[in-house]
Amino acid sequence: MIEHSKGNDHELWTKFLHGNDQVLSLIYLRYVNALYDYGSKITPDHSLVKDCIQDVFCTIIRNRQSLSPTDNIQLYLFKALKRQLVREIQKSLKYREIDPDNSGRFEISFLQSFDHTEFELSDEQKKALISAIESLTARQKEAIYLRFTRGMDYKEIAVILNLNYQSARALIHRAISKLREILAGKTNYFSQILLCIFRKTGKGVLQQ
């Protein structure tokens, strides 16, 4: 039994490339909920998200012989899922062009997150926090989600968003600065509350 740690991604992926389908099942079980949670924030069509996750894994199996090694399976799968979702969204829009690096939507539901923090917030503070977060662009929300909910570093975020390293850092910095500016004086626990909330937004479970 291989323990779950990012450090053994290269080993897991190599075993899969060499024909070990049991390892692929382990990879699927390890990442399917995170993939579903991520995909559901790109599109509200949960059936499409499930179909695209299946397509990603079917493609991996079909192209096993030509796949490259990786030591970051989560990054590989997130990138593949986003690419597949954008492709399908484009089809549903009858081939109307959309930005391939940004589907134009990235929604995070924060209301329930306030019920699971250790902070006592008034209704006014909750509304202010939600309003501030919703003022971010879809791309800023996605970057913050990947950083604080999924724990990705700037290099990984840059890969998913097709940015360079400095641009990924600047995107997150601008988003945080915007939130700080909007919420100035509205709460004494800015950093702690936001970090707690963003970590709570990634708890979605894939519906069977």
UniProtKB/TrEMBL annotation:
GO molecular function: DNA binding; sigma factor activity
Protein keywords: Sigma factor, Transcription, Transcription regulation
Pfam families with a match to the protein in the record: Sigma70_r4_2
Residues spanning the membrane: none
BP GO annotations: DNA-templated transcription initiation
InterPro entries: RNA_pol_sigma-70-like, RNA_pol_sigma-70_dom, RNA_pol_sigma70_r4_t2, RNA_pol_sigma_r2, RNA_pol_sigma_r3/r4-like, WH-like_DNA-bd_sf
Signal peptide range: none
Residue ranges of domain RNA polymerase sigma factor 70 region 4 type in the record: 128-179
Keyword Transcription among UniProt keywords: yes
Stated family: Belongs to the sigma-70 factor family. ECF subfamily.
Matches recorded under NCBIfam families: sigma70-ECF
The protein's name in its UniProt record: Sigma-70 family RNA polymerase sigma factor
Origin species: Gaoshiqia sediminis
Lineage: Bacteria, Pseudomonadati, Bacteroidota, Bacteroidia, Marinilabiliales
